[in-house]
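Q: Here's a chain of 194 amino acids. Please give me its 3D structure as tokens.
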Amino acid sequence: MKSIILLFIFISTVTILNSNAQEKSFKVGGAAPEFNIKELGTNSYFDLQKISGDTVVILEFWATWCSPCVSSFGHLNKLRETFQNEPVKFISVSYESEDKISKFLASHDLKTQIATDPELTTWDNYLAWAIPQTVIIDKKGNIAGFTHPMKMNEQIINDVLQGKTLTLNKPGDQPYYYPGSTKEYYHKMESGNK
């Protein structure tokens, strides 16, 4: 009887943990998790529900301490300029403070729209554990793909604008996943304690 109870507890725990993990995950081809993130230096918010429907969203996760993130700024700026008259919104989101981001951007040119997510809610929902990470959301609000920003190009964005399926990832693919807390993870990364 004791082993039946222990087996029941084990199965219940695994089921609960699995359902919690599925709630935080996203998959290529599936609905993009909602986000409502604050635009840097304003009282405005980027809300996926208000953006999707007619716009492709390029969601870029980055941090000031991440040199590959900063190295991709020029490439992102060129893509944004190329698509400035198209229904494409480039949003770069950091978890760092507005003050830190503003000071950093005073000497680093990033022409995308900048958002802050100090609670890392969007980072959790988009499994943004390895940065830089670019998530491409199609006009229907579905995940079209994810990649490193330097691998994104005009053809990829044009394909999404035209409703084509990307071949960056297989349907159901997910980025790297760390099962702990994003706050803990990125605070360790920022302080150099990996």
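Q: Can you summarize the key feature?
A: The chain is about 40% helix and 20% strand.
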